[in-house]
Each structure stands twice: as structure tokens, then as C-alpha cells.
């Protein structure tokens, strides 16, 4: 009986609100933009898992010396697909969002995708690092520490 009351509450109050939110064209473009980047996310995650298998701790039963030697020699090369896919994930997502929103308005998807990508690259801040012992006081940061600073 309590379950039926809860189910009725969900169906009468939350489902209409959720369907209204779910039909918003901007949220649909966000959802589809992230879906656009899913293959890159899967490939990068799979590579990261293969490179970081739990075979390197010599105190465990899973320790494999051949894996430690292999990773010492080739880890830098094997992890490159991860850096390529995850390092520029925001570019894939931004292009996908612009592409899907343009298609929703029945405009050219490629043009909308590149326009949103161009806008993102213009607005993205340049990342600087305050060097160790640098002039951190002007940023309000404790001296003698590394800290990322985004400037325009």
C-alpha cells in the first residue's frame, strides 16, 4: 500500500517535470554532445586500464615481473592513446554539442560544430604556472608553491 502511494506520487508529480526537462532542446544537445565523445572516452579508459594493471606491487600475489619490465620500457608509448583521447575530450564534447544543437534547428551540423569549437577555443583561458619561488603574492597565493592560474 505504501509502495503504491509512493509510485502514484512519482507518476503524478515527478514524471511530468522530468519529461518537461528531458524535452529541452539544450539539454538534449548536451546529452548528445557527451554521447558523441563516448567512443573516445571508452578507448582512452580501456588503454588506461591496460597500462595500470595491478601487477606492479611486489608485496601482492598478483605481482608479475614481466609486466613491470614491459611497463618500464613501453609505458610512455602505450599511454599515448589515453592522452590523445582524454586530453582533448572537451574539444570532442564542444563540437558534438554544437553539431547536435545545429541539427535540432535544421541548420548545418558541421558548421555549427566548428563554430562552437571555434568559440570554445577563443574563450578558453590560457593556463600559466607560477614558478616555485615566483611572484605569487600578486595572485594571493602562498609563496614557494606551484599553483595553476587561468588568465585571459
Automatic annotation (TrEMBL):
It is found in: Cell membrane. The keyword Membrane applies. The chain crosses the membrane at residues 34-55, 76-99, 105-124. It holds the Pfam family PTS_EIIC. GO terms for cellular component: plasma membrane. It is a multi-pass membrane protein. One of its GO terms (biological process) is phosphoenolpyruvate-dependent sugar phosphotransferase system. Keywords: Cell membrane, Membrane, Sugar transport, Transmembrane, Transmembrane helix, Transport. GO terms for molecular function: protein-N(PI)-phosphohistidine-sugar phosphotransferase activity. InterPro entries: PTS_EIIC, PTS_Sugar-EIIC/EIIB. Residues 31-139 form the Phosphotransferase system EIIC domain. This is Phosphotransferase system EIIC domain-containing protein.
Amino acid at each position: 500500500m505504501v509502495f503504491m502511494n509512493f509510485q502514484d506520487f512519482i507518476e503524478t508529480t515527478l514524471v511530468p517535470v522530468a519529461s518537461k526537462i528531458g524535452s529541452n532542446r539544450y539539454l538534449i544537445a548536451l546529452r548528445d554532445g557527451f554521447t558523441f565523445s563516448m567512443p573516445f572516452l571508452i578507448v582512452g579508459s580501456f588503454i588506461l586500464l591496460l597500462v595500470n594493471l595491478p601487477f606492479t606491487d611486489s608485496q601482492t600475489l598478483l605481482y608479475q615481473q614481466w609486466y613491470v619490465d614491459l611497463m618500464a620500457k613501453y609505458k610512455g608509448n602505450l599511454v599515448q592513446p589515453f592522452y590523445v583521447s582524454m586530453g582533448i575530450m572537451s574539444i570532442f564534447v564542444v563540437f558534438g554539442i554544437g553539431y547536435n544543437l545545429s541539427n535540432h534547428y535544421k541548420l548545418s551540423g558541421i558548421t555549427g560544430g566548428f563554430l562552437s569549437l571555434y568559440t570554445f577555443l577563443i574563450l578558453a583561458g590560457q593556463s600559466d604556472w607560477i614558478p616555485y619561488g615566483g611572484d605569487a603574492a600578486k595572485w594571493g597565493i602562498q609563496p614557494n608553491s606551484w599553483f595553476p592560474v587561468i588568465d585571459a
